[in-house]
Amino acid sequence: MESPLSDDELIGLVKRGERQAYEALVRRYQDVAFRTAWVIVRDPQDAEDVTQAAFIKAWMAIGRFRAGAPFRPWLLRIVANEAKNRNKVMQRHSSRTDHATDVSAISDARTIPEDNLIEQEQANWLLAHINQLSEQDRLVIFCRYALDLTEAETASVLGCARGTVKSRLHRALARLRLRLEEPS
Do residue 123 and residue 136 come from a single domain? Predict the structure, then answer.
């Protein structure tokens, strides 16, 4: 059950030692944290591991969280950093193969009715093209459109200025358009 308390109220309780308040924050943000990790590591098991590690790091750092700041971008930045670090470790230890991807890995876990099959196929087609982009391009597109983050939140997650988000997004979408226009 979703807590009726705001993020600020829950964080205040967490800082006073209320473990249940942090559990409420985890429940509130576990899906978006998983999707953020998945965009970067592109493997469901790795994304789950990254998400768990990020929540632990956030728990350890919550005392340094600035009161009044938005929690979601702060948490997602931790998730993104943890995922990027995991990718670096994985690249050093072995060559990874691209995992098969479909939109269900980043969308809500629900059954797709038959009348939505065409939409699902189109989404998978688009996702396949997005997956061909660089990590930086994928991340800015997913932050803005799949995770529905604002430009400011995206900037916080990516660790860059808002203007940089605008320019990266513009360039990423231009590269995506070129891929979509290529003959199959």
Answer: yes
Question: Do 165 and 159 contact (CB within 8 A), yes or no?
Answer: no
Answer positive or negative: Cα dihedral of 6, 30, 176, 170.
positive
pLDDT in tens, 101-122: 445 545 544 455 555 667 777 7
Total count of domains within the chain: 2
118-166 per-position pLDDT tens digit: 777 777 788 888 888 998 999 899 888 888 888 998 998 888 999 999 9
Query: End of a domain among 99, 127, 148?
Result: 99
Query: Is the sign of the CA dihedral 16, 157, 127, 38 positive or negative?
Result: negative
Structure tokens at 138: 């994928």
Q: Are residues 6 and 85 in the same domain?
A: yes
In the chain, the percentage of residues whose pLDDT exceeds 70 is: 85
Task: Residue 174: give the domain boundaries.
Answer: 103-184
Number of helices and strands in the chain (H, E): 8, 0
pLDDT digits (tens, 9 = 90+) for 78-103: 999 999 999 888 776 664 444 444 45
Identify the DSSP state of 16.
T
Query: Which residue bears the tokens 């308040």?
Result: 21
Q: Among 42, 73, 99, where does a domain finish? A: 99
Domain containing residue 21: CATH number: 1.10.1740.10
- Residue 139, number of CB atoms within 10 A of its CB: 23
